[in-house]
Amino acid sequence: MARTTTVKRTTNETDIVLTLTLDGSGNYAVKNPIGFFDHMLHAFCKHGLFDLTGTLTGDLHVDQHHLLEDTGIALGTCFAEALGDCAGIYRSGFFVYPMDETLGAAAVDFGGRAYLVCNSTLTGIPLVSLGADGGTASFQTDCFEDFWHGFVNGARCNLHLDIIRGRSDHHKMEALFKAAARAIRAATTVDTRRNGAIPSTKGVIV
Q1: Got the DSSP string for the chain?
Q2: What is the mean pLDDT of residues 98-120?
């Protein structure tokens, strides 16, 4: 049975459509207006082996917060819907990802409750790059945590993100996206020894 779902989230601030396949090959085709965020979601899919397609639009004339948080909610909801009652999965996973001078760690539990701990040690200074139209573009690093807050609320999971060491904000965020991808991949993988049972002593994930 394919673990695939489509989530649409439309508000007065954003319009988001995402289709996620958990058991994919890392294919990514999302129309994303924020260059660095697009890079992060692409890396997340590549390292988690998730397939993701869709479109993201939002009120970027205000700032990037609404689009990042709502994308997190939509993507997390995709995971929650694709996992259903979580029968047969490992449920939890962790990964430590090295990226040059940076070492990032992620641990996740799809236990039915939303909680985020994010120790990213970011400077809060926006990353500035050359935009597609030749002008300047930026990524609001203070919105990094907003995305993950949205994700855990949509996915109903616990997620801990920690930078153990590092200098570059780019490397810190990328290491954490990749570590999270690998941790989530491990947690959502079907455990053949579980024989389809719910991975909880309660008998249900709530």
Answers
A1: ---EEEEEEE-SSEEEEEEEESS----EEEE-S-HHHHHHHHHHHHHHT-EEEEEEEE-TTT-SHHHHHHHHHHHHHHHHHHHTT-TTB--EEEEEEEETTEEEEEEEE-SS--EEEEE-----PPEEEE-TTSSEEEE-GGGHHHHHHHHHHHHT-EEEEEEEE-S-HHHHHHHHHHHHHHHHHHHHSB-GGGTT--SSTTSS--
A2: 98
